[in-house]
């Protein structure tokens, strides 16, 4: 049953270099549909999965949808300006960051190390916040 | 040293934005919610602790009082986690601010008292006069009991604020003393350092005890009034 979106996906893969933006968006939609129809990732054709991962790095992706680590340094200001700052965009960004953070806390066999990483990050954040007052407490002869 | 002592207690702002909201919301990230029957380690530990606390604290109440379980359990979790997170270096503890503790204490106390007055008026008013007082003493005792009733929210808030603030201040002072003494006489510095370690252990205990005491007293006020 899931062969239909899978075949559609392979069809679009052939034309991805010529169809640029539409193909990328359609790829994502098709992948999501395929994942919805069969419940887990392993049921998808493993060869297909390799192809989808390749499509993100090898194809010409428009600037708006590039991930941060793949943006060139010269394009960074325009990348920042192109992200949508609408309330729904910010809410989406917060949700994505939240679920990425969850990997530190809400894991199946969580350990003390993960939790202490979070607490250490909290301590560093507070240090950076209060650096102005802490500057005066350095051990100097003349403050 | 004069004004630096209290700079760690000012409300944190950054570029005029209230950072304190983020700091208050941070402990909620450490308590993930989960819909599963069998969870990961962190959530299981928290569920076990929550069950222990709720059984110990809410078993004395009747049905009407047990409707407050959610409120009291979230209260004890919030105060405990905020106090414990404040023991990390350079952290800001929201419970050192009297404003926040008053904001927690007054509504809870008022809710308990008003519930008592609305539902069991005679019994609530009867709390003002302990049993078996000699007759001439009655007017004075009623006045004293009224004062003690109205001082309850103040005492709740000020107790929490003063304990946490005093503990943090002592740690700062003794830590500073240890640092200053290392260049003068290392032996005294070692003794001071041991005192610092003992204080830190005490602070961990105090953090959790204060949460417990706060919640216990609110539940007591509730028990009187339901």
UniProtKB/TrEMBL annotation, chain A:
Task: Keywords in alphabetical order, please.
Answer: Acetylation, ATP synthesis, CF(0), Hydrogen ion transport, Ion transport, Membrane, Mitochondrion, Mitochondrion inner membrane, Phosphoprotein, Transmembrane, Transmembrane helix, Transport
- How does the protein's chain sit in the membrane according to the entry? Single-pass membrane protein
GO terms of biological process kind:
proton motive force-driven mitochondrial ATP synthesis
**Domain of life according to the entry:** Eukaryota
Q: Which InterPro entries match?
A: F1F0-ATPsyn_F_prd (IPR019344)
GO: which molecular function terms? proton-transporting ATP synthase activity, rotational mechanism
Where's it mainly located? mitochondrion
What cellular-component terms does GO give this entry? mitochondrial inner membrane; proton-transporting ATP synthase complex
Q: Where in the cell is it found?
A: Mitochondrion inner membrane
One Pfam family assigned to this protein is: WRW
Q: How does it assemble?
A: Component of the ATP synthase complex composed at least of ATP5F1A/subunit alpha, ATP5F1B/subunit beta, ATP5MC1/subunit c (homooctomer), MT-ATP6/subunit a, MT-ATP8/subunit 8, ATP5ME/subunit e, ATP5MF/subunit f, ATP5MG/subunit g, ATP5MK/subunit k, ATP5MJ/subunit j, ATP5F1C/subunit gamma, ATP5F1D/subunit delta, ATP5F1E/subunit epsilon, ATP5PF/subunit F6, ATP5PB/subunit b, ATP5PD/subunit d, ATP5PO/subunit OSCP.
**Physiological role:** Subunit f, of the mitochondrial membrane ATP synthase complex (F(1)F(0) ATP synthase or Complex V) that produces ATP from ADP in the presence of a proton gradient across the membrane which is generated by electron transport complexes of the respiratory chain. ATP synthase complex consist of a soluble F(1) head domain - the catalytic core - and a membrane F(1) domain - the membrane proton channel. These two domains are linked by a central stalk rotating inside the F(1) region and a stationary peripheral stalk.
Family, as annotated = Belongs to the ATPase F chain family.
Q: What name does UniProt use for this protein?
A: ATP synthase F(0) complex subunit f, mitochondrial
From TrEMBL, chain B:
Q: Which InterPro entries match?
A: ATP_synth_F0_asu (IPR000568), ATP_synth_F0_asu_AS (IPR023011), ATP_synth_F0_asu_bact/mt (IPR045083), F0_ATP_A_sf (IPR035908)
Main location (coarse class): mitochondrion
One GO CC term, this protein: proton-transporting ATP synthase complex
Q: Which Pfam families match?
A: ATP-synt_A
Q: Does the keyword Repressor apply?
A: no
The portions of this protein that span the membrane are 6-31, 67-86, 98-117, 137-158, 164-182, 189-222
Q: Which CDD domains match?
A: ATP-synt_Fo_a_6
The record's listing under PROSITE patterns reads: ATPASE_A
Does Oxidoreductase appear among the keywords?
A: no
Q: What is its membrane topology?
A: Multi-pass membrane protein
Entries under SUPFAM superfamilies matching the protein: F1F0 ATP synthase subunit A (SSF81336)
Q: MF terms per GO, please?
A: proton-transporting ATP synthase activity, rotational mechanism
| Reactions catalysed according to its record | H(+)(in) = H(+)(out)
Where it sits in the cell: the answer is: Mitochondrion inner membrane
Q: Which UniProt keywords apply?
A: ATP synthesis, CF(0), Hydrogen ion transport, Ion transport, Membrane, Mitochondrion, Mitochondrion inner membrane, Transmembrane, Transmembrane helix, Transport
Write down the Gene3D superfamilies for this protein, in alphabetical order.
ATP synthase, F0 complex, subunit A
The entry sums up its family as follows: Belongs to the ATPase A chain family.
Subunit structure of this chain's protein = Component of the ATP synthase complex composed at least of ATP5F1A/subunit alpha, ATP5F1B/subunit beta, ATP5MC1/subunit c (homooctomer), MT-ATP6/subunit a, MT-ATP8/subunit 8, ATP5ME/subunit e, ATP5MF/subunit f, ATP5MG/subunit g, ATP5MK/subunit k, ATP5MJ/subunit j, ATP5F1C/subunit gamma, ATP5F1D/subunit delta, ATP5F1E/subunit epsilon, ATP5PF/subunit F6, ATP5PB/subunit b, ATP5PD/subunit d, ATP5PO/subunit OSCP.
Q: What is this protein called?
A: ATP synthase subunit a
This protein's encoding gene = ATP6
């Amino acid at each position: 049953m899931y062969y239909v979106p899978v075949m559609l996906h392979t069809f679009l893969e052939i034309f991805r270099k010529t169809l640029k933006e539409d193909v990328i968006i359609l790829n994502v939609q098709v992948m999501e549909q395929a994942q919805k129809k069969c419940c887990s990732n392993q049921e998808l054709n493993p060869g297909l999965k390799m192809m989808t991962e390749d499509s993100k790095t090898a194809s010409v992706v428009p600037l708006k949808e590039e991930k941060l680590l793949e943006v060139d340094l010269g394009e960074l200001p325009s990348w920042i300006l192109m992200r949508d700052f609408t309330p729904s965009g910010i809410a989406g960004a917060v949700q994505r960051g939240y679920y990425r953070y969850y990997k530190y806390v809400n894991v199946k066999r969580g350990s003390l190390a993960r939790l202490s990483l979070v607490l250490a990050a909290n301590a560093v954040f507070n240090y950076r916040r209060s650096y102005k007052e802490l500057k005066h407490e350095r051990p100097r002869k003349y403050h | 040293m004069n004004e630096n002592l209290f700079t760690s207690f000012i409300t944190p702002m950054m570029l005029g934005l209230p950072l304190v909201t983020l700091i208050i919301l941070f402990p909620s990230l450490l308590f993930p919610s989960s819909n599963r029957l069998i969870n990961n380690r962190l959530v299981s530990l928290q569920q076990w602790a929550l069950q222990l606390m709720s059984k110990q604290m809410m078993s004395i109440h009747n049905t009407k009082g047990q409707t407050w379980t959610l409120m009291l359990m979230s209260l004890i979790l919030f105060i405990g986690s905020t106090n414990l997170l404040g023991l990390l270096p350079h952290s800001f503890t929201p419970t050192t601010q009297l404003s926040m503790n008053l904001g927690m204490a007054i509504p809870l106390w008022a809710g308990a008292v008003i519930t008592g007055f609305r539902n069991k008026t005679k019994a609530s008013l009867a709390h003002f006069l302990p049993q078996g007082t000699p007759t001439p003493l009655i007017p004075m005792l009623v006045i004293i009991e009224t004062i003690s009733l109205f001082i309850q929210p103040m005492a709740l808030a000020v107790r929490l604020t003063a304990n946490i603030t005093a503990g943090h201040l002592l740690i700062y002072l003794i830590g500073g003393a240890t640092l200053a003494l290392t260049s003068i006489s290392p032996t005294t510095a070692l003794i001071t350092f041991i005192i610092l370690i003992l204080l830190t252990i005490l602070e961990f205990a105090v953090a959790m005890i204060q949460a417990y005491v706060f919640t216990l007293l609110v539940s007591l006020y509730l028990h009187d009034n339901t």
